[in-house]
Amino acid sequence: MLPAREEVVSCCGPEAKPPDAGESRKDAPKTVCCGGSRVCESTTEASSLDGTSFPWIERTIETPAGNVPVVRTRLLPSDRHGTWRVRWNFGRMSYAVPPGLYGLGSPDPPSPVLVTANFKLTFDRVRRQLVGRSAWLLVLDTKGINVWCAAGEGTFGTDELIGRIESTGLARVVSHRTIILPQLGAPGVASHLVTKATKFHVVFGPVRAEDIPAFLDAGLRATTEMRRVTFPLKDRLVLTPVEFMQVAGNPVFLAIFGLWALQILGLKFIPLDGPAFLGAVLIGTVGLPALLPWIPVRPFALKGWILGMAWAIAVCAFRGVSLATPAGRLAAASYGLIYPALTAFLAMGFTGSSTFTSLSGVVKEMKYAIPAMILSGALGLAALAARYFV
Predict the structure, then answer these.
(1) CA–CA distance, 164 with 185 (Å, rounded to integer)
(2) pTM over 0.90
(3) Burial class (CB in 10 A: 0-12, 13-18, 19+), 224
(4) Domains in the chain, start-ordered, CATH in brackets?
């Protein structure tokens, strides 16, 4: 049960979106988040864990359904280090905890049951909000994906929830029949089917993890503010390291930076303006998220194009590019065609991390934006190459 600003960290592209509100679970896309196979698919159950291998487990308790590990509600330095690594895209695709039932504090049969994903960033965010409280934490096997994306993919879904309730023997552990799900998991779960299969009543909790204590204290009633998905500046900026590192690790961009390094050493293959190119990358990965609400258009590609064109104009002014000469006109054309295409492309990559977009809207946008980016980039490279002959 994680706020949007924390959950979106593991999405990585326009496809990484939960289904639109009008889409049924049946019609939702089956592969929407992060792509490729995952190494974090867990076959280990929580009941077999101890604090030796997992320092965030402080002890185990016996229940009618077997041993249940009790996890710490205060994060250890190793947990914070793991969060830092994930924020910078190191090991992000395998940052998961084994699914199953966990305890927090001193849980007993009447204690509430909170459901979450096995993405450890999500898991950590939830448990640290419950300091001084006793609860059960039912962790679904979402293949290391956060709640928001997993709900769209189907791993945070009806079948997994029903299966996890049954496999953990939850009905024998608690004396009530209520489970609390994160609001962002709603697209993946048919609550009436869960109730029919398990007799557990589903209650959807708040968007943000920090609202869980107030939600519990209010008798499982959420305020309007608790239901609102926000995406302020701080939450957007916390995602930018992942965006930048994804670009920095791309072979195409590595090759460009390599050519820039050779150019610095005196081996000039093309008239590459390395600092200006790096500036365009930073604008697309950091500037766009920072300025997102204030760019006065809706499509992300167009938002990125506007920033890229502003950057191209600034570079031309700083470099003293003159439109009075053929070389100057070609330089201006290369800047004005390449940098907007680059920043537009990078801007579209942020759609999977944003609460501003929908899957259907992104698909529609890609149909016209991608061909335009390709054409603009190709013409820009042609103008760049033509500078050799003037």
Answers:
(1) 15
(2) no
(3) exposed
(4) 4-229 (3.40.50.11600), 234-389 (no CATH)
